[in-house]
Amino acid sequence: MAKYKPWLVCCFIFAGLISAVALVCLCIVSIVDRGCVGGSFTQAAVSADSLRCSEIGRSMLKQGGSAVDGAIAALLCTSVVNPQSMGIGGGSIFTIRNKKGDVKVYNFRETVPPSFKRDLLSDCPTEFGLTTGSQWIGVPGELRGYEAVHKQYGKLRWAKLFEPTIKLAREGIPLPPFLGNLLKNQIVKAHVEKSSLCEVLCNKNKTVLSTGDILRFPKLAKTMETIAEQGADAFYTGEIGHDLIQDIEAAGGTLKREDLKSFHVRVEDAWTVPLGDVKMHVPPPPAGGPLLAFILRLMKGFPLSPHSLDGDQKIQTYHRYIEAAKFTNGQKRSINDPVFNGRKSADHLIDHSFVNRIRDMISPNRTHNNAYYNNAKPSRDHVGTTHVSVLDKDGLAVSATSTINQLFGGAVYSPRTGIILNNELTDFCGRADNVFAGEQPPSSMAPVILETKSGGLLVIGGSGGSMITSAVALSIINRLWLGMNLKDAIAARIVFVDSNNTVNFEPGFDKSVKDGLGALGHKSGKWKYFMNVVNAVEKENGCIVAVSDSRKMGESAGY
Length: 559
Ligand SMILES: *[C@@H]1O[C@H](CO)[C@@H](O)[C@H](O)[C@H]1NC(C)=O
Ligand SMILES: *[C@@H]1O[C@H](CO)[C@@H](O)[C@H](O)[C@H]1NC(C)=O
Ligand SMILES: *[C@@H]1O[C@H](CO)[C@@H](O)[C@H](O)[C@H]1NC(C)=O
Known about the structure:
Layout: H1 6-32, E1 45-47, H2 51-62, H3 67-81, E2 91-97, E3 103-108, H4 142-153, H5 158-171, E4 173-174, H6 177-184, H7 186-193, H8 198-201, E5 214-215, H9 218-230, H10 233-236, H11 239-250, H12 257-261, E6 266-269, E7 271-275, E8 278-282, H13 289-300, H14 313-330, H15 338-341, H16 352-360, E9 386-391, E10 397-403, E11 412-414, E12 419-421, E13 448-451, E14 457-463, H17 468-480, H18 486-491, E15 495-497, E16 503-505, H19 511-519, E17 533-540, E18 543-547, E19 557-558
Antiparallel strand pairs: 1-9, 1-19, 2-3, 2-10, 3-6, 4-5, 7-8, 8-13, 9-10, 11-12, 13-14, 14-17, 15-16, 17-18
Bound molecules: 2-acetamido-2-deoxy-beta-D-glucopyranose (3 copies).
């Protein structure tokens, strides 16, 4: 040991003492404010697609509202701020966990109207793109669903949830940059300009609005006012439904008032799936919960740790993920409405021995043709949708994914009511051979809630149509097993295995890993529509972290 001068030793001891005192102080401070670091919250939080809607959700929570009140208000807001993603002409799935740990799924996605076009599937498009046409409109479930969850879990008055959005719709908002960029895209621009949507999204000269232009929905404001006063019945049995049906008829559609009346919200237990020490609650079929559970359970069987991203191990980790995603594509046809297609078609996806058997088929250093993965008949890919995650101060958690299906649904706007209609029935294309009245199309939507043994919660879900499974699965893998914090877990570039099992890398994805995967035989594609968006709220040791995806320029809000 080197010889130190006595005064230097003194200095060391003194410095050591100071550090010890500082450490004790720090500990006391962190126990007092429970160690919640900057940017995290202690009571409640909302992660929606936009700061404006997260804040509206938070304002409901601060006024004594529950997480369900916050989620409904944030979604209503989203129908104005991101009208391409969702609205009261669409449907949603809410996964709700109460303080005791019971988890219910309220599924109010659109259903096939009794008056549907019998040869509907022969109209299915053969290529990726935006699908128009009033035959694709499913019976909207959005408001019946809000009514049901509000009745069960709401604390604020129904009308209160609509107030902020009525004001936004009437007074207008500067067109948000995300929507502005979207409207610049030539395909989207043409889609809007040649449709009835142009009434709200175009200038007087019939060209689309730009970022910063004032976006107003005066008719929608009036419609929401009526619904706020009279309840969901105004839509399903009252005057608004009447007006809406007239507009749909004028657009060549066949939806009837009786179709609206026929809508029922489905309330079910969530499927609870173990992921090691973590329990994950997912919405059952025809939601995408079982597909998400399947890919995560395939991955959980590999020894994953933060080191799985070191050097060449990163290639093997993504190789395994891509193979798991190919097998998941091969299982898409197992997801359908159990009421009409036999109740057990997706049960195997969470069966231990099936998952293990498939995992054993993942080869370490090669990939295979589509038939190997049971994916000889690929489905179609599409994009759209929104997600909001909310956690309130009483421990109620809501994970809600909401949609009108593709961007602006099928571009059918109802001029009398201001409502944009969904084109949800296109979800049957490539995934079903028959369609039944009352059936719900299969979906990728997977609003989920995870809980750890120590009481931690992760409320998470995503949007982006076919990309939902990849976006949410990779965020969860990054967070749970690869050592990332929530923000990094969501921000990490993804790989999307499309329905043809072609591997598409999000711009910015690690080039050396991409090259390594190419050497293993993965075919890489040129997917241009990385509209994957994940919004999540997590609570651990009393601290709440909320993240809205920056891909959609989102920001969360909490207190
Ligand atoms: C349409 O009007 C907007 C705003 O008034 C203007 O910026 C745009 O250049 C016009 N486009 C055409 C093609 O006239
Ligand atoms: C793949 O790995 C196996 C053993 O894990 C080995 O026998 C085989 O030669 C490898 N194939 C290639 C193409 O590297
Ligand atoms: C998948 O393949 C089909 C037929 O080869 C093609 O029409 C479609 O565009 C492909 N989809 C994607 C996402 O590449």
